[in-house]
């Protein structure tokens, strides 16, 4: 494409403004990724600062560990809770507020949004107490089953330990998605909805043909946010379960932390981090492909 001299000047001006931010981004984000990629193919000695090339040694070790597959499974559970739990529930709550189906909407919105303003460590400790043997959840179950001695011990159960994690994740982040959906619902032109109602469209028809298509772009963006946030999640699970019992709630970030900062095996930790980065890229590309198939390439 041939550019006129005026257009060329504009392009150069834009590049000059973007260049400093791009350089800073590459230094802060790009360099650590490249360094981690290099370390993942070496045997790095933290004491001598020497790195010996080992090829795919750490990746082979990782794929042969049952701990890795457990952490991968738990990470995908967290992704599923975020994408198929937080986003739909956030949308339902936003739609309730949008249609003014509850009183004291400001208070309701504030209470649902409040958890995300709290420290993840505080939230982890809070839910740890809630699910303890003397916590509110356990006491509620005792009332339901009419058994003062009843206890399920979710946090110490290999089968149920991920349930408190899922509850905590839903409680924290649903309010964020609710606010984003509500803001986008309020941007929909009321005259479009009114015109559809005048034409005899039912509430369900308006919802499916007006509301949902108007939010398709934001759903894609929020899905990407949810995936990225799930893959890098660390502090909540660290405070709530520490990856226990017996690593049954350990996610990939905790798995990486354990090897890199407990065992000081930076090379193995770097290999795990590369898997996390690769998963993030693959899942986000998959979301974009699905979005293009459903809505066409011009949608955001």
Automatic annotation (TrEMBL):
It is found in: Cell membrane. The chain crosses the membrane at residues 12-34, 76-98, 110-128, 160-185, 206-228, 263-290. Residues 72-287 form the ABC transmembrane type-1 domain. Keywords: Cell membrane, Membrane, Transmembrane, Transmembrane helix, Transport. InterPro entries: MetI-like (IPR000515), MetI-like_sf (IPR035906), UgpAE/MalFG_permease (IPR050809). It is a multi-pass membrane protein. Its main location: membrane. One of its GO terms (biological process) is transmembrane transport. PROSITE patterns: ABC_TM1. CDD domains: TM_PBP2. GO terms for cellular component: plasma membrane. It holds the Pfam family BPD_transp_1. This is ABC transmembrane type-1 domain-containing protein. It comes from marine sediment metagenome.
């Amino acid at each position: 494409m041939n550019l006129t001299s005026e257009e060329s000047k504009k392009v150069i001006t834009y590049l000059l403004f973007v260049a400093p931010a791009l350089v800073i981004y590459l230094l802060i984000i790009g360099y650590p990724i490249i360094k981690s990629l290099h370390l993942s193919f070496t045997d790095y000695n933290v004491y001598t600062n020497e790195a010996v090339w080992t090829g795919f040694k750490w990746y082979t070790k990782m794929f042969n560990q049952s701990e890795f597959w457990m952490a991968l499974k738990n990470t995908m559970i967290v992704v599923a809770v975020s994408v198929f739990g937080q986003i739909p529930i956030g949308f339902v709550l936003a739609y309730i507020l949008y249609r003014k189906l509850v009183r004291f909407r400001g208070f309701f919105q504030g209470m649902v949004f409040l958890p995300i303003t709290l420290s993840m460590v505080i939230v982890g400790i809070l839910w740890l107490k809630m699910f303890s043997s003397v916590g509110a959840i356990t006491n509620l179950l005792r009332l339901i089953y009419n058994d003062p001695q009843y206890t399920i011990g979710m946090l110490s159960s290999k089968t149920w330990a991920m349930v408190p994690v899922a509850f905590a994740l839903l409680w924290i982040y649903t309010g964020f998605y609710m606010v984003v959906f509500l803001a986008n619902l309020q941007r929909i032109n009321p005259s479009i909805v009114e015109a559809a109602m005048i034409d005899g469209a039912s509430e369900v028809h308006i919802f499916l043909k007006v509301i949902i298509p108007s939010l398709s772009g934001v759903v894609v963006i929020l899905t990407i946010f949810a995936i990225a946030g799930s893959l890098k999640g660390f502090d909540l699970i660290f405070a709530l379960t520490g990856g226990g019992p017996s690593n049954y709630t350990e996610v990939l970030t905790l798995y990486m932390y354990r090897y890199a900062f407990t065992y000081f095996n930076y090379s193995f930790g770097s290999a795990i981090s590369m898997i996390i980065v690769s998963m993030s890229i693959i899942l986000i590309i998959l979301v974009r492909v699905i979005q293009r198939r459903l809505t066409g390439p011009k949608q955001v």
